[in-house]
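Checklist before submission:
- one chain only
- standard amino acids only
- sequence pasted in full

Submission:
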Amino acid sequence: MPAIVQEQQDLLLNLYIQPKASRDQWVGMHGDELKVAITAPPIDGKANAYLEKWLAKAFKVPKKQVTIIKGELGRHKQVRISAPRELPEFIQQLL
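Returned file contents:
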């Protein structure tokens, strides 16, 4: 499956998460996934909550429009962004 799949108005992102990074950023491709570095630690769901908030800000949508579909407890995640208002430059280059 590709790293980014467009389903009508939604985007499905296949992500590889690097928690406890020095800064939040799109790192690049990691195999067939997008690698994302976030500063939040992977403790008690803090990294997932932080990732949802960070993605919502990046795509200019409310947090409720960002859903982790697969991978709640792992580094490999599939995330749905419902009707993104804006695409980050890194994502635009990959589409």
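Reviewer check: The chain has a mean pLDDT of 95.
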